[in-house]
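ok trying again, last paste got cut off:
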Amino acid sequence: MILVTGATGFLGSTLALQLVQQNVPVRCIKRSSSVIPEVLKPYGVLIDWRDADILEEPILADAFEGVTKVYHCAAWVSFKQADKEPMIATNVAGTANVVNLCMENNVRLLHVSSIAAVGTAKPGLLITEKNHIEETPVNNVYAISKLESEMEVWRGIAEGLDAVIINPSVIIGAAAGTQGSGKIFETIRGGIKYYSSGSCGLVDVEDVAKCAIALMNSDITAERFIINAENWKYKDLFETAARCFGVTPPSAEAKPWMLELAWRGAAVVAAITGKDPSLDKIAAQAGSVEQNYDNSKLKKAVNIEFKPVKQTIEEICEALKK
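nice, full thing came through this time. structure:
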């Protein structure tokens, strides 16, 4: 039996869907308050849904009965300072529980980490799996939680755990809607005047799931893999999406000092309204940084042809138009 945590989320649901479409039975855990994604409802015969929280080890342990492989996709994603302590506690402790149960039950683990847990390279060089974060990113609460969660997996590996780690770049896809990375496209759809000078890695959610399954089914263990299809300048990303939506592309560059003022202003508005800020400090600072990733290690390990990012962008725009 295969267990998928976070199966109601963007990546987890896509991964579970690919497994059942291959006629592979899976057990998916969800919180009692979570809603089963529409795309998975037709596959009720192949999916054993269990209500469990990764923080509740006794209940989680019951879900491990008969399991031989675990895809750990569950994570709390937030960039708000107010969520720092509970998010780190949830992500790290939850991963520790999954790791411990995998070791107790001799289960192979594929852990979904993040590109946020990978370090940076020298200017002009691609970032690889060998780049490690040298200093704790005190302001990036999500990066801290993913880094420390990944450390739990490495702790398990040191104790004999059979595991592989993936570090996806920015995961995009029409299924995100207006949440997560979908917020970027919804913002562009509304019209923006400025673009930032940095760059980022992008990858379709379906490709991340394919890579996860391929790595799980391989003999590879105790390795981490960056999953990234293409590196894009924010300017090119914004322009491409704007044209797909039929809106005017941004024409002016937002300088670092402008982004600094923007996130501070957004923080003030958020404090007054109680809503999430339209731009947070981490996103503002990252907007001026070129972060380009090397996917050669992954390509050598598994046979993957990535979907062109431009095609995914077009699919996202069409979905949001509807």
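cool. The chain has a mean pLDDT of 86. Residues 18 and 283 are 31 Å apart (CA to CA).
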